[in-house]
Amino acid sequence: MVTYETIRKNKEINLLIEKGNAVLNELGYTEHSKKHAAKVAETAAKVLKELGYSSKEVELSRIAGYMHDIGNAINRHDHAHNGAILAYSILKELGMKLEDILTVVTAIGHHDEKTGTAIDVVSAAVILADKTDVRRNRVQNPIPANFDIHDRVNYAALSVALDVKREKKVIQMNLELDDTICTVMDYFEIFLQRMLMCKRAAEVLGYQFKLVANGNKIC
């Protein structure tokens, strides 16, 4: 049986993740290493678990979350589609059931805001986990004077939490920003598409998506 632990210990998958992160580092992108992969995996699983989905769906969301960025090893452009194709081959070789492979690769292939959207509960959980992973230690640029807006937003993030409020049918992102580095408007300048993607993902799960930044309800 192919489990999350199987995937997390797989040499080929980990090499693809680290090569992808090295490529993005050279291109000036934020961190997309095994740390980001594990964070997305665990957050996606947490969302589905708290919403009462089956252990199988929770496990598939972990696997898709961990593997979602392996396509960056080929190219940042079309990385979601490339990653899905790579994942299909790897998971088939590992002996995963075809139905489960298709759930995972669909989530990977739909996680990028330029071409994807939530189409089932696993893809929705991966999108919510990926698009809300904003944190200071994702900045790979060592020179603050050279930060682009993505670096500034991530560096300004003091804390972020994704909370499931079952009684209110709300999935809420709580964000604390150092507004001397980045304003909430700066955040929306680059992350509006991602937040709209989270809104759609929450709707697939039967919930509303809300963002609270520095204690203020934004949407």
Q: How many DSSP-defined strands?
A: 4
Strand content: 5-15%
Which CATH architecture is right?
Orthogonal Bundle
What is the CA-CA span between the terminal residues? 41 Å
User: How would you describe the shape?
Assistant: globular
Please describe the topology of this protein:
Blueprint: H1 4-8, H2 11-27, H3 34-50, H4 55-67, H5 79-94, H6 98-109, H7 121-131, H8 149-156, E1 157-165, E2 170-177, H9 184-204, E3 208-213, E4 216-217
Parallel strand pairs: 2-3
Antiparallel strand pairs: 1-2, 3-4
Describe the structure.
- This protein is an alpha+beta fold.
- It has one domain: Orthogonal Bundle (Hypothetical protein af1432), CATH 1.10.3210.10.
- It is 55% helix and 11% strand.
- It is built from nine helices and four strands.
- The chain has a four-stranded mixed β-sheet with strand order 1-2-3-4.
- Strand 1 and strand 2 form a beta hairpin.
- Helix 5 runs antiparallel to helix 6.
Could you name the key traits of this structure?
single chain; 11% strand; 219 residues; alpha+beta; four-stranded mixed beta sheet; 9 helices; Hypothetical protein af1432
Short summary of the structure?
With 219 residues, the chain is of the alpha+beta class. It has helices at 4-8, 11-27, 34-50, 55-67, 79-94, 98-109, 121-131, 149-156, 184-204; strands spanning 157-165, 170-177, 208-213, 216-217.
